[in-house]
Structure formats: C-alpha cells, structure tokens
Amino acid sequence: MTLMLDYTFMLADAVSGGVAPEAFAAAQGSFAAAHAAVAARHASGELGFFDLPRRRDLVAQVLEYAARVRGTYRDVVLLGIGGSALGPLALRNALCAPQWNGLDDAGRGGLPRLHVLDNVDPLTIAAVLDRVQLADALFLVVSKSGGTAETMAQYPVVRARLEGAGLPLANHLVFVTDPEKGALRPIANAEGLTALDIPANVGGRFSVLSPVGTLPAALLGIDIESLLAGAGDMVHRCASSDLARNPAGVFATLQWLADTSGGKHVHVLMPYADPLREMAAWFVQLWAESLGKERGAGDHVGPTPVPALGATDQHSQVQLFMEGSRDKTVTFLAVETPARDVRIPGAHADVPDLAYLGGHSLWELLNIERRATAGALATRGRPSMTITLPQVDPWHLGALMMFLEIATAYAGALYGVNAFDQPGVELGKRYTYGMMGRPGFEGARGEFAKLPQSNPARIIG
Ligand code: PA5
After folding, report:
1. What is the pLDDT of residues 192-229, one digit of tens each?
2. Best CA proximity match to 448, nearest among 460, 433, 438
3. Which of these is catalytic: 150, 278, 289, 405?
4. Is residue 456 part of a domain?
5. Ligand 1, atom 12: nearest CA belongs to which residue?
6. Domain housing 103
C-alpha cells in the first residue's frame, strides 16, 4: 500500500479557515498549466530528480562500492551541507537511529555509524574527529557544486588528519559530486580517489535519491532498491494532469491556494513519529529554498515552512497554531504501523490521572493525540492535512520524498517562480568569499565594508 493524503480538513466545508471547495475545483486549470510547465522542463532535460529511480548506472555505482567496502569501516563521516546533508540525515534517522540507539558494533551487525557534519562549528568537527578512529573511518565529501565554502573547508581538515596519520587517502575518502564541474572532480581524477556522480541536472535539495542519499544509505545497510522503487511508484502516481488523480498536485495546489488566497503563509510539517523528525527539516529546506523568491522587481513570494514534532510540540508550538495568527496550515505525517509499540501497564488504579492510561499503548496514545490535535485545530477554523505512511521503511520513505519533491516542482510553477535556483543566497556567499580573501571577490569585500556598521551607541550589554 502506498502513502495516503487526507485533505478533508484543508477545505472550508469541513474547516472554516480552509480553501473554498469551489476555489479548489477552479484551480484545476492552474494545476494543469503547472503540470505542463514541469513536464516541459523535465522533457527538455532539466529536473533529473524525476529520473533518479530508474538510473541503474547510479545504483550500480553505489551498490558496487558499498559491497566492496562492507565490513571495513566502523564510522562513516559525511561532510556536506544543505541538500548534501539533510536527505542523508533524514534517511539515517528514519531507518537506523531509533533501532540502533545504544547498540554496539556487534549489535549493528558490523554496519558503520553515520555522522553528518553539516556545519563548520569547530566544536562539532573537532569532537567527531577526535572520537572516530581514523583507520576505521570513511569520509564522504558530498557537494554538487564542488565549491561550497563550508564543505571545502571541512575537506582539507579531514585530509590533513588522514595524512598526519599516514593513512592512504584512497581508502578513506570518497567524493560525491557533479560528473564534470567543480573542484572535487579533478582532484579525484588526479589522485585516483573514488568519486560518485550527482547528475548535472539534479540540484542539491532534489538530490537525496542520487548517490548523495543512496551511498550513505547503502553503507548503512538500507535497501536502496526499495527506496528507489517507492520513489518510482510515486512518479507514476503523479503522472496525471487531472488534479483529482495527482496527490502531489493536490498538496501543492492546496498549499498555494491557502497561502495566496487564504493568508496561510506558514506551512507546518508535523510528523507524529520520532523517526520522521528530520524529514521535517529536509522538507523545510526544499520548500523554503525552492519557493521563497523575488518573482519580479519588488514582488516577493513564498510560504514559510516550519518543522514541528508531535506529540512534543503539543506542549510548545501548538498553542500558537491554535490561537495565534490565522496564517498557518499544518500537515501531519502519520504512520499506521509502528516498528515497535509499548504497552502502558495498569498502575495506581486509585489515581484517576494515571489509571485511565493503563492497558493502552504508547503508539495508541501518540496517534490519538495527533487526531485530537487535528480535530482541535478544526474547531478553531485552522486547516490541516494528513499524509499517512503504512510504515516507516525504505519504500515508503522513497515515496514520501519523491511526493514532496514533485509537489515542490508544481508549487514553483503555481507561484510563478523557478523552484530550482537560489539566487538569494549568493550575496552572502560573495561577502564571505571577499572577507575570506578569495581571489576575484575583492569587490564584494569592498561592498561589504560600505554597508551600515554596528553603532556602538546602540549596543547594550
Ligand atoms: O539546494 C541547493 O542547491 C543547496 O541548498 C545546496 O544543497 C547547498 O548549498 C550545498 O551545495 P553543494 O552540494 O553544491 O555543496
């Protein structure tokens, strides 16, 4: 069974603040145009993420390498940021972390641990490098562009440590990068390092089903064939330009209508399952970096995605979702069958605050809390929808990630923006290059120097 999208509570006939059913029906034309625009870009050779489920060449690269090194490493350390880190993290946390917590090497069946270094905070980098045994560690340097400052700064740190330890680089370094462009590919070619491909037409935040995600997943023993099969099934399910038959289309169109016609500018993704916690962080990057754009001079669009976790955030953000500004939609991620459940024993029969829980299970409580929250939001006119996964396994995660990627592509077309670029992050990068002394960016350094500076009179301590 595949994943299901229940959008009953997104519509105004069920929840007063939702999208008018007539508006949703009338959006069929807009959706068909968005579908056609996405299909045309795909047909022209862009949007390679759609094709990743059938890229046998990439799967073969990954499986061959993973089989070759199986049992060799205790630790895999991924150096990468943004789309080069969030997908692998989401897969690891969904499919490995909960089961493995506290397990030693033998308990993990000889499979390695995965550390994802997605920042340049020296405290974290130094701590991880001090902790792992370099001789038993594999470092994956993941960068589509092969030029991202953070990853390019981490790489020489690791390389120097390996060299200092006298370890052969080819046994401890693997690059995952563009087949031709960037700084990493020529280094790999010159030094005989293994380098796996991120297809040229697959952008960072759409790359989780390329070796960016499949290599670390395969090294962790995750069934990547199943992951890709689930994703491929979702491509098939989202083929139709008929809104009623395209789940990613329904998600994108409802979110777009809620934002642009209903003032719902904040889109919350709220899994009710710890393994899916990082899926919300992955979605936040996808939705924010793809849709937050200047459409034309002074014309700024894009919803603000917010991650949440049930039931934890019922004691935090849900107060805001219930009574704060009426500017939000909430998408719940539900799981039908848990990997494990725990029965709540009957205890303190004479204490009513406790006794009613006895005999239920923790999973039952978690799911009832999700339904209760959706119902409570509905009473306040706050729209929501629910995506249900039958279980957290590679097939359904592949389907979920492809679903959200396709929805993002449609949403880009509905908003009238290019969902596949990120011009807004360039200026900060240029200033950084200038201040770090990168040749060619002297002008950016000068521009930065002319910006307003902190006024000592306005600093208080
Ligand atoms: O989605 C994107 O393109 C970005 O968020 C990138 O993933 C991020 O900037 C890292 O880029 P790269 O993989 O080129 O190092």
Report:
1. 999 999 999 999 999 999 999 999 999 999 999 999 99
2. 433
3. 289
4. no
5. 143
6. 48-222
